[in-house]
């Protein structure tokens, strides 16, 4: 199926250099969904967020968070593994690592200090607003003072991506000392195992389930501490490795595109099963906890795996051609995710005492944050040195917003 994101045309020639617009757009969507996810976090009924919780809360916000959180970061890390493998194949090790340094390490070092200062101040103000209803800077109202300095904020995803790139470097160094037959055997095994095969799906799903079972929710979420979490590294590392292997089997994307809606249906089914099991498992000392927790972990692993395959297939099916608005949105997503936390909290805090339903506050915060991020990107990032750091190029003129 030409143009579906596969790197082979009808003649079978390999086009490693062609741009995969569908996967670029998918990566941008997953990053931009952070605005939706984090806006919903402010209005949860669940006690999950410590920097700010609005008095108006809704179960709909819980469901929004659970749904997006199930697939968002796993899909993002799968794409990161895919594109890292693509860079290695296209440019070789030295240029690939130079590119990852410029796109990951430099933004982490550059943006973390101002983000940390801004979010630390806003966290203190939010603690005062939640405790007294008034703006203030009483640091004694912070429950866990360590979080003020031991915090990568929403750049934790870059922190772990850097770890994965370092792991790739170590793996390449190790391959120099391993027998050629062993490395060739690994390459042959990955080359002959389709990404859509039962073996591949169950290997990924059960691996995610095994690691996720150590969490009450049956899956692992990001950790913001500078101290790396082994479970987070392994959980999203499986997704990164899945993307790496998918690049070796990139002709499978054509099949994923055909099966996308079926995989999406399966993903949603297993997510519902996981939610039911989560409700039934109860506390860890309950009689049926082990059974329902095991079912929860396995169902979640299957849901995550099917979501990843479904999104890859569907985006390559429907967004495989270049479109200016998709290119613009894809370019803006990095900046949107890095910068969104500050305007989000600035918009949410003044509405603290406003007694309207949580959904209205959520829509105002989410849409307002996205608007601010897009405007700042368009005016102060896209055609500047910052845009060059984030996107690898600087646009010479300001195009009209889409």
UniProtKB/TrEMBL annotation:
InterPro entries: Acyl_transf_3_dom, Glucan_succinyl_AcylTrfase
GO MF assignments: acyltransferase activity, transferring groups other than amino-acyl groups
Acyltransferase found in the keyword field: yes
Regions crossing the membrane: 25-44, 64-89, 101-126, 156-175, 195-214, 226-248, 260-281, 301-320, 332-354, 360-377
Residues of the Acyltransferase domain: 21-377
Keywords: Acyltransferase, Membrane, Transferase, Transmembrane, Transmembrane helix
Pfam family, one: Acyl_transf_3
Entry-linked PANTHER family: BLR4337 PROTEIN, MDO-LIKE PROTEIN
Name of the protein described by the UniProt record: Acyltransferase family protein
């Amino acid at each position: 199926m030409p143009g579906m994101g596969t790197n082979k045309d009808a003649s079978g020639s390999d086009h490693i250099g062609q741009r995969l617009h569908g996967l670029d757009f998918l990566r941008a969507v997953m990053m931009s969904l952070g605005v939706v996810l984090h806006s919903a976090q402010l209005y949860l009924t669940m006690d999950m967020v410590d920097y700010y919780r609005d008095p108006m809360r809704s179960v709909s916000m819980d469901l929004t968070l659970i749904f997006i959180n199930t697939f968002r970061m796993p899909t993002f890390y799968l794409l990161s593994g895919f594109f890292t493998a693509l860079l290695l194949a296209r440019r070789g090790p030295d240029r690939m690592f130079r590119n990852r340094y410029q796109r990951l390490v430099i933004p982490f070092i550059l943006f973390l200090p101002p983000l940390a200062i801004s979010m630390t101040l806003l966290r203190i103000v939010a603690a005062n607003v939640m405790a007294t209803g008034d703006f203030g800077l009483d640091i004694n109202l912070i429950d866990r003072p360590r979080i003020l300095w031991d915090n990568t904020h929403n750049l934790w995803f870059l922190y772990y991506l850097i770890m994965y790139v370092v792991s790739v470097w170590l793996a390449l160094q190790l391959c120099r000392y391993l027998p050629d037959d062993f490395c060739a055997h690994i390459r042959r095994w990955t080359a002959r195992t389709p990404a859509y095969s039962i073996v591949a799906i169950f290997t990924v799903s059960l691996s995610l389930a095994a690691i996720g079972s150590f969490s009450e929710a049956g899956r692992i979420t990001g950790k913001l501490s500078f101290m790396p979490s082994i479970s987070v590294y392994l959980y999203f590392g499986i997704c990164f490795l899945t993307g790496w292997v998918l690049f070796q089997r990139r002709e499978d994307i054509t099949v994923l595109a055909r099966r996308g809606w079926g995989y999406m249906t399966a993903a949603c089914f297993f997510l519902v099963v996981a939610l039911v099991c989560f409700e039934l498992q109860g506390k860890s000392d309950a009689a049926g906890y082990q059974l329902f927790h095991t079912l929860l972990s396995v169902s979640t692993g299957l849901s995550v795996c099917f979501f990843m395959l479904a999104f890859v297939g569907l985006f390559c099916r429907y967004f495989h051609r270049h479109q200016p608005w998709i290119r613009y949105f894809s370019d803006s997503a990095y900046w949107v995710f890095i910068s969104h936390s500050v305007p989000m909290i600035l918009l949410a805090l003044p509405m603290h005492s406003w007694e309207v339903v949580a959904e209205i506050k959520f829509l105002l915060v989410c849409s307002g944050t996205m608007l601010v991020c897009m405007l700042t990107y368009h005016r102060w990032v896209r055609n500047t040195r910052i845009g060059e750091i984030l996107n690898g190029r600087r646009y010479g003129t300001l195009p009209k917003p889409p």
